[in-house]
Inverse folding.
């Protein structure tokens, strides 16, 4: 995946492999190795990789694509762990809380779904052996998903030390839409309904959120509605955890997190509220299956940072238009209608 994103960055200049090699002071075979994966960028010395990332924008590569190299390298590490099955090293899904960009890169490789942020960069199909997407071969996908299911079941037996690995492996396993796999995923997710019955913040809060959102993605929204009512609303620590997790997931919190403890920061420090607002507004438009969670999160964000609408500019106007459309939808839940109604009222009061 990293090589594919690097190829997109090169083509955004645009330059041939030979021309880019000359600009970077390396040979053409090196660039070819980077793009094909024979010479993974993740294996470069830290200083050389930093220099490459700084040089690419300087020679004209799109900065958005260069930024996505990090998520691609994270995704490559996760896929490699699944294909190599090296049990002597810690699993990458146990070592840090991954972000939406990493999940989108993995979905691209596993399901063919292009990350929305990169959709405008994908070139038209061409003749010859040039890949149109960084998809895994069917046999490799089968091996990888089998690995995720085995890791999920093993991590469930490891107590608190396996919580992060279990949650993230199970979430990614739900990307396998084959009939047998879908049945396993649904059975495993429903087997964790006990955590959905808990109220407010608990050590199992993150697992409950992940389970509820995964079930919603599979077409069962009720657990997510129940999660918002029971484990999120009216609990200050849970409300803070939700915003902190969104901040990491959506890129407003730029510092990698090794575990879930960052969610408990009730001071909401370390991330930019305006960046989170913009990302949540985009999600409200792009992810209709999660309207209730976005509605509640926007309500909570504007409650915590009442100055945001004045600073948001075009984002505030976009949110106002979107809430007007959603409030006309008869399928909206009572809670989401109430919370979006508050958001719309605040925006109208500022920009009548």
């Amino acid at each position: 995946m990293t090589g594919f994103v690097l190829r997109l960055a090169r083509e955004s200049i645009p330059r041939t492999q030979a021309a880019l090699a000359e600009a970077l002071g390396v040979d053409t075979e090196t660039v070819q190795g980077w793009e094909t994966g024979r010479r993974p960028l993740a294996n470069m010395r830290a200083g050389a990789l930093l220099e490459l990332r700084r040089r690419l924008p300087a020679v004209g590569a799109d900065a958005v694509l260069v930024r996505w190299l990090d998520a691609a390298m994270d995704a490559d590490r996760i896929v490699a762990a699944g294909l190599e099955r090296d049990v002597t090293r810690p699993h990458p899904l146990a070592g840090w809380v991954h972000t939406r960009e990493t999940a989108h890169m993995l979905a691209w490789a596993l399901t063919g779904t292009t990350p929305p942020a990169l959709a405008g960069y994908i070139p038209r199909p061409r003749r010859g052996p040039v890949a149109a997407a960084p998809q895994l071969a069917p046999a490799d996908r089968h091996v990888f998903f089998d690995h995720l299911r085995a890791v999920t079941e093993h991590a469930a037996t490891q107590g608190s030390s396996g919580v992060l690995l279990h949650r993230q492996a199970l979430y990614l396993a739900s990307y396998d839409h084959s009939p047998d796999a879908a049945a396993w995923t649904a059975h495993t997710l429903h087997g964790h309904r006990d955590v959905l019955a808990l109220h407010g913040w608990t050590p199992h809060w993150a697992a409950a959120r992940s389970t509820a959102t995964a079930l919603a993605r599979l077409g069962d929204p009720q657990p997510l509605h129940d999660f918002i009512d029971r484990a999120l609303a009216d609990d200050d620590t849970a409300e803070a955890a939700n915003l902190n997790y969104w901040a990491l997931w959506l890129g407003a919190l730029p510092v990698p997190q090794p575990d879930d403890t960052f969610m408990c920061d009730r001071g909401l420090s370390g991330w930019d509220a305006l960046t989170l607002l913009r990302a949540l507004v985009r999600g409200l438009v792009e992810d209709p299956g999660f309207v209730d969670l976005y509605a509640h999160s926007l309500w909570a964000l504007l409650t915590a940072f009442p100055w945001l609408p004045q600073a948001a500019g075009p984002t505030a106007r976009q949110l106002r238009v979107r809430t007007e459309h959603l409030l006309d939808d008869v399928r909206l839940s009572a809670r989401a209608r109430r919370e979006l109604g508050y958001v719309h009222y605040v925006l109208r009061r500022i920009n009548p």
About this structure: The mean pLDDT is 91. The longest helix spans residues 63-84. The two ends are 47 Å apart (CA to CA). The CA atoms of residues 42 and 73 lie 6 Å apart.
